[in-house]
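Hey,
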Amino acid sequence: MIVGFNHNITYRGVGFHVQTEDSGHQKPQLVTLLYHGGTIISSQKTVYADIIKVDNLEQVVEELAKEQHKGMLKKLTKGEFDQRIVELGIPLGASATQSSLSVADQGNIPQPPAASDAEALVEGAEPVTIVEEPIIDKFRQPKATEEPSLDDLIYAYLTAGQKQEL
């Protein structure tokens, strides 16, 4: 099971969040959501139950997730959700020429557009920026540091202030 992908992106002066998660073997599907604040602008779901028995399932699912995630970022930056965003009462700023920017495919993880792309924008328009969030595996959380046992606490209390001989 893959961990998932999260990116914050500023498009036409407005911050959005794109999140892709794998639901795991029990419910084999990838879900990508485009958010602004707590509002879901768009969602995409891919069910992969038909390939669950493939030998390299984890690698195949990771590639599917990356493509679905990048696809959502590209659709946003191409302006495909502009009408829906405005219908939801989210004001889009800056020039519509920004929608011509695309997400670079470097290392299969979306990256910010190159500086040369930003220079090509109409003067005064904000460039699209993508900020990658740290990956957090919600299924394999680090174990909390263990507290000392009762025996250790009693021993520390009883021996406090005593010199130890070696």
